[in-house]
Specification:
By secondary structure, the protein is an alpha/beta fold. The chain contains five helices and twelve strands. Strand 11 (about 160-165) and strand 12 form a beta hairpin. The protein starts with a strand and ends with a helix. The structure holds glutamine.
């Protein structure tokens, strides 16, 4: 039973915890840097990337987590979590920082504002079709060849990756935690 953390500073923490517990993981809600020790992996939830970034700094989790990611801690960032892991953030606040662990450029709210939120079916490599809930979702506009694309979606402007992996760093534009389908979580957890 892998011990998996969910970064619990802001955002849809509860839903991630539920999906992870459903698939048999032991879940730790991470609010302090010491709680990173002994984790097999960590989920960075959706929410508000600027708020989570701010709380990462003030809680003191930021530098410890940065080091863990660089040393290979498997991390899955969904929506705002993806923004936090990305190399380049477009449309962010001027002072918005990110871990820069995933070689992608993401545009905040790249699929539109709240009112343009949508649900669709996403075909994920090795899993098949899963429900994809997009809420003010970041759009991956460019990526390097180090980045494996596990799923893409064409929202009328060509294919853009929506689930990617670069070694230990996973990013997802949509919200796999907001449906009862836990297969994206299982895909991540099975690698731990
Ligand atoms: N647009 C939000 C941000 O920039 C992310 C939205 C989400 O996580 N649902 O943080």
């Amino acid at each position: 039973m892998p011990r998996v953390g969910v970064l619990a500073l802001q955002g849809d923490v509860r839903e991630h915890v539920a999906r992870l517990e459903e698939i048999g993981a032991e879940v730790v809600r991470v609010r302090h840097v010491e709680q990173l020790d002994g984790l097999a992996g960590l989920v960075l939830p959706g929410g508000e990337s600027t708020a989570i970034a701010h709380l990462l700094t003030t809680s003191g989790v930021r530098s410890g987590l940065d080091e863990k990611i660089r040393h290979g801690l498997p991390v899955l960032g969904t929506c705002a979590g993806l923004i936090l892991l990305s190399r380049h953030v477009l449309g962010g606040r001027d002072d918005q920082w990110s871990f820069g662990a995933l070689d992608v450029s993401v545009r905040r709210n790249g699929y539109g504002r709240q009112i343009a939120s949508f649900e669709t079916v996403i075909e994920v490599k090795g899993i098949g079709p899963v429900p994809g809930v997009f809420i003010r979702a970041p759009k991956i506009e460019s990526w390097t060849e180090e980045v494996e694309v596990l799923a893409s979606h064409d929202h009328g402007d060509g294919d853009h990756p929506v689930l990617v992996r670069q070694a230990n760093v996973w990013g997802c534009s949509f919200h796999p935690e907001l449906t009862s389908d836990a297969r994206v979580h299982r895909l991540f957890v099975d690698t731990l």
